[in-house]
Structure formats: C-alpha cells, structure tokens
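Fold this: SPFH domain-containing protein
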Amino acid sequence: MEKVLKPMSGYLALVISLILLCGSIYLFIIGVNDGEYVNITYVVISIIAFILTCFFMKGLMIIQPNHSRVLNFFGRYVGTVKDNGLFFINPLYSSQKMSLRSENLQGQTLKVNDKMGNPIEIAVVMVWKVGDTYKAAFDVERYSDFVKMQSEAAVRHLAMSFPYDNLEDDHAPITLREGGDKINSILEQELTDRLSKAGIVIQEARISHLAYASEIAGAMLQRQQATAIVAARTKIVEGAVGMVDLALKKLSEENIVELDDERKAAMVSNLMVVLCGEKAATPILNAGTLYN
C-alpha cells in the first residue's frame, strides 16, 4: 500500500554541504602548502569533510510539480514523496521518479468481431494518470506498457459484448453505434477494473473510431439503405391507409356520393397508387358517368 512521506527541507542540508565543501578545499590547500612538509592532519580532515559533502549532496532531492519519488531502502519500500521542492532524505535511499500528470492514450484501430460476429473497426482515446505509486512501481512491470496492453484487451472485450447496431438484433438494449454515454461508461468501468491493480486512475475514456470493416462496409451500407427505404415505405403506406379511410368516411358522412363495393375498391386502388407512388400521378378526367 502506498505510504506518503513528508521529508525535511533540503535547504539546510544544501548550506551545510556548501560549507563542508569550502572547508574541505581550504584545509586541503593549507595542508599541502604548510612549509616543506605536508600536514597530514589537515589533509585527512579535508578528505573527511569532502566525504561528508558528498554524503549530504547525495541526500538532496528536487521534485518537480506533479511528480513523485518512490523511495526504497535496500529493497524495502519506505514511502513516496509527492510534494514538490527541495528535500533531504537518507542518502542510502534509492529513488524512482514517477510522473503524476494526466496522460493521453490514443489507441490503435483494432479489427474485431462484434457480438453478432460482424468484423468492425474500433479505437478509443483515454485519459489516465498514476494514482497509487506503490502499485505502479512494484505490482506490474513497466506500468505504461501495462496500460497499453490492458486498454486494448478492454476494447476487444467491449466490442465482443455488444452488437454494432440493431439491424440483426432488434431486441438489443445497447449497441456500439447508438450506446453513446452508456457505452463510454461501460468502457471506463472495464478499464478501471483492469488497471486498478497497477494503481492507474481512468479519468475519461471515449470511442474515437467505430465502423464496419472494409470487406463488409459496402454490403452493410446497402443493407442500411434498404432498411431505411423499407421503414420510409412503411410510414408512407400507414399514412396512405389513414388518408383513404378518412376520405371514404367523409364521403359517406357528407352523403356526397354513394359507392358500391366495386367502386370503393377502385377508389382505394387509385388513391393508394397516387399516395404511395414515387412520381406524381397524371390525372385522367372522366367525362362520362360514374359507371362509364
């Protein structure tokens, strides 16, 4: 589990390091130039001061905004520093840099089969960041590669769980093409479940590309057009039947003309041709009687 540390400020350690460095240089110069003989005491003290300088400098650590350092002590996790600034830590600690910034991942376009077995192309774009530095550093190997591989697996699983549209599955409650926010929400949850073991937080995930595969795109387009034509014709026929029924009722209620069954059938046929035809009908005037 992640443990956040609050190390001491590094400015005091920096000042001490500079003082020790200057003192080391000064003592070394005095020890070497002390008459005809080298003053061993000054030289030894200068060497010790230089070693202490290196010790303090090794413990200094600069952390940029939205970055962190994961600290270890001889293979044991010590904690994570998330504050930014200059700090001083145990010089024996080893540290691993880790960014806490949000990152974009534009997934490559994948060719998969949807729930009905149709080959489709799908791609997603997601925004993610490291939420738990311990999991990202120690529970997975190279968490950035883990994010890429698991996001691809999540997209494939999503595509196989739902049909592309409801042409073949009329009772499908959710489709990839019309699911919208619901599909994106399911995708975010799928990614969260897969990437939580690496300490990754999914901030947003959206489908950026969705289409039938090229080998069936033409056939599916014709099918969609045919479905649209059938739906439009159905609406036209329903409207025409209503208009014919209204016309017959009005003629009967107003006593405009009495029609027998044969003439009603002829009238219905003519009205349906006029109302349902793709082109405007050419009228023919009957100059004789109703029956001639």
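The chain has seven helices and ten strands. The radius of gyration is 40 Å.
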